[in-house]
Design a protein that fits this description.
Structural class of chain A: alpha/beta
Number of strands of chain B: 15
Strand content of chain B: 25-35%
Distance between the termini of chain B: 12 Å
Strand order of the largest sheet of chain B: 4-3-2-1-5-8-12-13-14-15
Strand content of chain A: 25-35%
Oligomer: heterodimer
Order of helices and strands of chain A: HEHEHEHEHEEEEEHEE
Structural class of chain B: alpha/beta
Shape of chain A: globular
Helix content of chain B: 10-25%
Distance between the termini of chain A: 37 Å
Order of helices and strands of chain B: HEEEEHEEEHEEEEEEEHE
Radius of gyration of chain B: 17 Å
Largest sheet of chain B: 10 strands, mixed
Number of strands of chain A: 11
Amino acid sequence: MKDKIKTADEAVSVIKDGDTIMVGGFMACGTPEILMDALVKKGVKNLTIICNDAGVPGRGVGKLITNGQVKTLIASHVGLNPEVAQRMNTDVAADKLECILVPQGTLAERVRAGGAGLGGFLTPTGIGTIVAEGKEVIRVDGRDYLLEKPLKADVALLRGSVTDRFGNTTYNGTTRTFNPIMATAAEHVIVGACEIVEVGDIDPNHVVTSGIFVDTIVGGEKPWEI
Amino acid sequence: MGDIKEIIARRVAKELKDGDVVNLGIGLPTMVANHLPEGVEIILQSENGIMGMGPAPAKGNENVDMVNAGAQYVTVKPGAMFFDSATSFGIIRGGHVDATILGALEVDEKGNLSNWIVPGKMVPGMGGAMDLVVGAKKVIIAMQHTQKGEHKILKACTLPYTAVGVVDMIITEMGVMEVTDKGIVLTEKHAEFTVDDIKAATGCDLIISPDLKEMK
């Protein structure tokens, strides 16, 4: 079996300037901080980040934003990271952050659609709001829906609680969030694991993400205080 | 008149029935769980992936992998389940949440809601609010009646919508209002206010229920 375990630096070496990166977690709960740190160290720029939120300064994707590596952020909520508003409104071109806000359920389903081979889906969320601008409205059985298209990424950076050497992964508590769906929607998937175990150690009943989705495993992740 | 937020939370709690699946917004709505009537047990859904959320843990018992949608530490009740975000919003959009309780910047007499953006000033994002108000069976807005004297209940919202035609009920420190096809109906009023006080604090016509009760 291919050895998927690498150091954080080796793992993020596949990431290039301009890549689209999905990052798991919700307000940084369930975000792989060691992979965020490795990406800061690598210094790649002009990234498009797809994440539920902007984290907070010093946590989660907040680290990448502070370091000026994010060109576009696709998220549902950025209000707990004041740096996002500053960078959205700055006149300094190099610091400028484009922020595309997507309803959280639509964001999750777009990622799911991206990983599930769907060309999109129809949702009532956003009808009659500025979210609907430029989107096709399709009427089904008398109700209007927005056509929302799938999201995919070059790389997904995820956090697993327990991961076996094949990549089978479980997620404790509320660290699950976007991690399992992002595992299906990126070309290359890196899991920062809190614990790495042997194949067979995780009861198949408890595996959430199959190892077939996981390209690289990095140990040394941990649950972080908020 | 006592703590305004407590008064609102206590009244909102009476709208919930035993066994309801409920999603509570951040802030005031969270307090509703502390005021449930005797014998009423609800199942709290948290959009970051919990069915069966419990109260905050005792100090020292926090599990850093267990938070609510406001990133505060929580517990789970026996019988709880964790799930991913796509499943969570399938539950929400699919009509499996009986009630969602959240705050508002503006609500209007058509039941339109604005609570996620003040263009040029505050752009926090909608989070899960757009999905919640579209998907939940009942949408209750729990908020102070005015913002420092400025009307929040209007003839037409001025801020970008969160959703259109979704609000069922508005509960403030002044009273209880239902959104109907004919407009906003005041069904209960707090004893500290007259009907004229409430009309003056409201930016649209208020229909006074012939069966107006005291809010408790």
